[in-house]
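Holo model, zinc ion. Inputs:
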Amino acid sequence: MVKSFDPVFDNLRKRGHRITPQREVILQIFRQLPNGVHLSADELYVKMNELGYNVSLATAYRTLKLLSSFGLLRELTFAEGHKHYELKQDSLPHQHIICVNCNSTLEFEDHFLEEIGQKIGLKHHFQVIDSQFKIFGICPNCQLNK
Ligand SMILES: [Zn+2]
Ligand SMILES: [Zn+2]
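Output:
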């Protein structure tokens, strides 16, 4: 488990954010996920309780929102309209293609889309946290099984 030596948390504390052990644990869980895996609040809630952390679903929701507002997690809304989260990695910005039939998601990298997001945000005097570009469609598998 991370202690306060973690530069990410130190940085947040310096900016006046309260980083509780629970929040550190949640971020740790996201760090250990394989690439391309996204968690919903429900899934995080189950995982935390499996690990022996007694949190409520409401806390899981709130913490995910909060960590997203810090720019540590990315909040994603896929086809069925409920939210998923993933670790935000500045080094590897990626976007998603979502199948509206089976809800499978594919990730792709495109720096151009990130830059456009930054540019448009700046133009409107926003400090950009994240840019998301989503493509909805029908995946090759679902096209075959029609
Ligand atoms: Zn992703
Ligand atoms: Zn599909």
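The chain has two domains: 1-88, 89-146. The beta strands are 39-40, 73-77, 83-87, 94-99, 105-109, 134-137.
Archived with the compound record.
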